[in-house]
């Protein structure tokens, strides 16, 4: 399940590729001098656990008979497991709602900075980015306090309105509350990614557009958005991966919303609780692998679609 | 501005697509964004100055009856025989070795892939970039199981070793190397008889500095903020980093019949974010240029 979702492969400027096929330098092992340390750690801390997970998922530890090979039984069980699908449905919905909202906000902010029409642009850029540096645990603790009935912002707003409109920990709202925390954490990060892409547009393009009498919206549509497309694809892929492995936020929020956030609230929490509360290591590995494959498949589709549009 | 004088009336006023008039309306909209980003942080700063009774009884965005920031800081560092200091030290250890090592390995490998053609190079690249798509937490539980077979769990190595892998850092350094280290320079050094490693550490590393700083910064944030991995790997609180420790305090504070230490959770959270925010602000010139170099090729 090592999956290829290549970021755009960096251009190779070696003379070998097209220009001077004759001067092709002979391959030698000198490069390994630089790449072996990464490779060793990668094999040990990445490939080995990956293969071990696949191996584990093919076994079951029964009270009678001990550890035995069961083929794909664990996968069959997982596909019929309502607890797994409950968590999966939740992160999928989360992905469909939170990710577009966050990325659109980030794109709007990046375009605003890039338009050079804001006062204090530098301050804006840095402050909106700041939450990215805040650990998820601290972010959730802060928002958890703000959400709480005791000393929170929610309590004050409800008092002021004289009603109980805001219920951040109610079953129907808790996913939105988590979405807000995730948006808060990552909107600035995505903004910086988009802004970096926008900054690389050559000034001549803008000057040409201006001579053609293009207005700001036309410049955004015809120049800026196409230039940011690669960055948008990358940010979307990272956000998909992030959503599917949602764990920190619900897990830290759990003590505050105990009966609402279940042990299978997200697939990742499910895998964690299967291992550490239930000792069902084989089944836990199976859930992790299924989520890995689904994530990579969706990321791959986004990558393909994004690239195809680029070629148009 | 003078150059455009003949072309367009708007340009005569120095207004153009590249140098437009500032907009108050847009700035106000942006200010809303700013407030959103700052509200929780402001809450944290204000409430770290409150005593525990004030925390419960006063409005979240006004100061309490007494200014207890210093008392809270002292209490945070001394509670439970100074366990917080231990957690801070652990975090520094994991960041130093984990992020430092990740930066070194990513730099060497990214540079090697960019400047050398060696047997297995394409396979190397494909496998490492494929790794970007595998969710880190999907690997965490299997990594725990493997490490526990090897007796590595509940030791610092269980946190440090997985932190050493940064495929994104490798990719960024690769792109950066292609852009900023001329192959002719390396060939000249080779003709002078310098070894490859010597050339790297005396010449190339300087040209790569902004890229290295960017990779280091993101590795530092990732390890400083790491929560999931230490949560599953460690059972002994003496090895906890700040994130896991703070969450343990928070659960303890919310627990029934336990000693409420909300003021310590709040102040500890503030102390946790101050260094990392400071690093980001201090190095922003570097990471902003490093990132835009990386995004040219996206």
UniProtKB/TrEMBL annotation, chain A:
Q: Which UniProt keywords apply?
A: Cell membrane, Membrane, Transmembrane, Transmembrane helix, Transport
KW Ion transport (keyword) present: no
One Pfam annotation, family name? BPD_transp_1
Topological type in the membrane:
Multi-pass membrane protein
Compartment(s): Cell membrane
InterPro entries associated with the record: MetI-like, MetI-like_sf, UgpAE/MalFG_permease
All copies of domain ABC transmembrane type-1, residue ranges: 88-302
Q: Which GO terms describe its cellular component?
A: plasma membrane
Q: Which residues cross the membrane?
A: 33-55, 91-111, 123-146, 166-187, 227-247, 281-302
- GO biological processes: transmembrane transport
Similarity annotation? Belongs to the binding-protein-dependent transport system permease family.
Q: Which PANTHER family match?
A: BLL4140 PROTEIN (PTHR43227), DIACETYLCHITOBIOSE UPTAKE SYSTEM PERMEASE PROTEIN DASB (PTHR43227:SF8)
Supply the name of the protein. Answer: Sugar ABC transporter permease
UniProtKB/TrEMBL annotation, chain B:
Q: What is the lineage of its organism?
A: Bacteria, Bacillati, Actinomycetota, Actinomycetes, Micrococcales
Q: Which PANTHER family match?
A: ABC TRANSPORTER PERMEASE PROTEIN MG189-RELATED, ABC TRANSPORTER PERMEASE PROTEIN MG189-RELATED-RELATED
Transmembrane portions of the chain: 23-46, 92-111, 123-145, 157-178, 199-224, 261-283
Q: Which residues form the ABC transmembrane type-1 domain?
A: 88-283
Q: Which UniProt keywords apply?
A: Cell membrane, Membrane, Transmembrane, Transmembrane helix, Transport
GO BP terms in the entry? transmembrane transport
Mind naming one GO cellular-component term on file for this protein?
Answer: plasma membrane
Where is this chain's protein located in or outside the cell? Answer: Cell membrane
Query: What species was this sequence derived from?
Result: Antribacter soli
Stated membrane topology is: Multi-pass membrane protein
Q: Under which name does UniProt file this protein? A: Carbohydrate ABC transporter permease
> What family is reported?
Belongs to the binding-protein-dependent transport system permease family.
Read off the Pfam families from this record. BPD_transp_1
Q: Gene3D superfamilies attached here?
A: MetI-like
């Amino acid at each position: 399940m090592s999956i290829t979702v290549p970021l755009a492969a960096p251009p190779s400027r070696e003379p070998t590729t097209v220009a001077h096929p004759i001067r092709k330098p002979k391959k030698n092992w000198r490069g390994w001098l630089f790449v072996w340390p990464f490779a060793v750690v990668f094999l040990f801390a990445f490939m080995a656990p990956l293969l071990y997970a696949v191996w584990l998922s093919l076994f079951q530890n029964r009270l009678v008979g001990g550890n035995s090979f069961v083929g794909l039984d664990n996968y069959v069980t997982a596909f019929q497991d309502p607890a797994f699908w409950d968590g999966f449905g939740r992160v999928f919905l989360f992905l469909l709602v939170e990710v577009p909202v966050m990325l659109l906000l980030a794109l709007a902010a990046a375009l605003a900075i890039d338009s050079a029409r804001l006062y204090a642009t530098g301050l804006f850029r840095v402050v909106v980015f700041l939450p990215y540096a805040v650990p998820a645990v601290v972010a959730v603790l802060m928002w958890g306090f703000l959400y709480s009935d005791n000393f929170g912002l929610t309590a004050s707003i409800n008092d002021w309105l004289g009603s109980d409109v805001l219920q951040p920990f109610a079953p129907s709202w808790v996913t939105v509350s988590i979405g807000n925390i995730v948006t808060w954490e990552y909107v600035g990060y995505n903004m910086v990614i988009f802004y970096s892409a926008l900054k690389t547009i050559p000034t001549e393009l803008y000057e040409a557009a201006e001579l053609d009498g293009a207005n700001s919206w036309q410049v955004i549509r015809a120049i800026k958005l196409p230039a940011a497309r690669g960055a948008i694809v990358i940010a979307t892929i990272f956000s998909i991966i992030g959503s599917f492995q949602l764990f920190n936020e619900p897990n830290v929020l759990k003590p505050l919303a105990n009966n609402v956030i279940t042990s299978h609230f997200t697939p990742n929490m499910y895998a964690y609780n299967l291992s550490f509360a239930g000792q069902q290591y084989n089944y836990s590995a199976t859930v992790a692998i299924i989520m890995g494959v689904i994530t990579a498949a969706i990321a791959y589709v986004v990558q393909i679609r994004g690239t195809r549009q680029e070629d148009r | 501005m003078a150059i455009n004088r003949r072309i367009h009336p708007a340009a005569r006023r120095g207004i153009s697509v590249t140098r437009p008039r500032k907009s108050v309306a847009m700035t106000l909209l942006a200010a809303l964004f700013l407030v959103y980003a700052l509200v929780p942080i402001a809450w944290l700063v204000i409430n770290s100055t409150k005593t525990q009774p004030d925390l419960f009884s006063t409005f979240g965005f006004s100061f309490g009856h007494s200014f207890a920031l210093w008392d809270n800081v002292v209490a945070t560092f001394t509670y439970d025989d100074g366990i917080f200091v231990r957690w801070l030290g652990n975090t520094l250890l994991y960041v130093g070795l984990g992020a430092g090592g990740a930066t070194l390995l990513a730099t060497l490998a990214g540079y090697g892939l960019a400047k050398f053609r060696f047997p297995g190079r394409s396979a190397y690249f494909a496998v490492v970039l494929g790794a970007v798509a595998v969710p880190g937490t999907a690997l965490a539980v299997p990594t725990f199981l493997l490490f526990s077979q090897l007796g590595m769990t509940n030791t610092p190595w269980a946190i440090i070793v997985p932190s050493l892998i940064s495929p994104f850092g490798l990719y960024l350094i690769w792109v950066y190397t292609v852009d900023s280290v001329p192959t002719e320079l390396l060939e000249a050094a080779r003709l002078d008889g310098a070894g490859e490693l010597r050339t790297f550490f005396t010449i190339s590393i300087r040209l790569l500095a902004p890229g290295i700083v960017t990779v280091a910064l993101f590795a530092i944030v990732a390890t400083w903020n790491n929560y999931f991995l230490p949560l599953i790997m460690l059972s002994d609180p003496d090895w906890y980093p700040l994130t896991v420790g703070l969450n343990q305090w928070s659960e303890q504070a919310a627990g029934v019949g336990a000693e409420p230490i909300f003021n310590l959770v709040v102040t500890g959270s503030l102390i946790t974010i101050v260094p990392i925010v400071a690093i980001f602000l201090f190095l922003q010139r570097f990471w902003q240029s490093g990132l835009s170099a990386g995004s040219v090729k996206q």
